[in-house]
User: What shape does this take?
Amino acid sequence: MQVSHTPAAVSAAFDDPNLIAHAGLVPVMRLAERCGLPRLVTEKVKLTGVTNGAGAAADTKVTSIVGGMAAGADSIDDLDVLRHGAMPAVFAGIRAPSTLGTFLRAFTHGHALQLHAVHRRFLGALAAHTPLLPGAGEMAFIDVDSTHKRIYGRTKQGAEYGRFKGIRTLHPLLATICTPQSRPVIAGVRMRRGKAADSRGAPKFVSEALATAAEAGCTGTRILRADSQFYNAGVIAACRRAGAHFSITTGMNPSIKRAVLAIPDEAWQQITYPTAVPDPETGELISDAEVAEIPAYTAFASRKKSERVTARLIVRRVRDLAKPAVVGEQGELFPLWRYHPFFTDNPAPMLQAEREHRHHAVVEQVIADSKASALAHLPSGHFHANSAWLTLWAMAYNLLRATGALTSAFHARATTATLRAHLIHVPARIARSARRITLHLPHNWRWQHAWRHLFDTVHAPPEPG
Assistant: This one.
């Protein structure tokens, strides 16, 4: 491909008031309205005590931020992407970035909790209106993990030195929901200080995530999956209270090490992975391992009797390839293994339970997505403003996932970057006639049939209640 004209014959001018660059926002924000996002914000978010007018029209400001994030904005200034061309002809109430920044800085901890309530109910509405979580009535997995977001500005509240030496971070905590047939959606998020312990506030957060999953239609078997930093009695007790199962990596503490080394050799079963999986310690790809289980292992034996938990301890072991297999001229006398145990009451057969636990890594896809989009920057120096930004990103993420689920089978599994490229970042020319607006989109757009299906679905009359 090459440019068809000489440089002297090509010119450019930003002068057409009837063009928009992100026509896909029209059906996306229509879906948000049908699921009640503006109404929920009006009901739940009350920025009381604000004297500069920042609390006015909270519904309009929230939808402006969510719409900007859906279009790819990763900072407050980037929210200006909504103010171009004919956007005011298709959207009312678009706010300037400065107004949205003032709105976010007005948040307190209590206001952030109000926004969490909106997120929770909005997810339930999205799941009710779209095939967001197929199979949720049979089985759903709730994955909990934390991440660190590096902070460079020295004036940002809560940015501290934590796990990474010499690096100042904030420490978000998030929970996702997925089914065997769906990509994960976000059940809940919390912003925390950089030096906060990984499991700080985890039992309450797990309870809220499990309750959110139930509201989103996860009425069948629910299994909470987490890494070893969440292996504590409080998290497991929260699962038991909610009627959910758990599958949590334990690490190798002395009690578990004794139990694992006591497993007889004949109890280990060979497992071969259809695709190689990364080793959690070394990152090396492995294709073969051995699995065994202790059917009744009692965890937290040093605690009082009511806090002890007896369940299955399933262990995967792989050969320690870091150690030489041959010493001198003599072959290996004793094989060296690395063990990866997890504690679970999952009723599935051992190998299935091990496979389902390994799939916990799906939460890393959501974390990677966040750092490639709205969480590329935490845009404010105010801690609670960043907390609100995190929750608004979770709403935008779930909205895009619901958009993909409503569009096609391919887009239901696509990444959010692909959803933006196929469905949102499509230009259109606005034509007005007889009080109607027509969007003229590019001829031969590769995904026009999927886009048309989405548009027609969200603009159809609502089904009778």
Summary: The radius of gyration is 25 Å. The chain is about 35% helix and 20% strand.
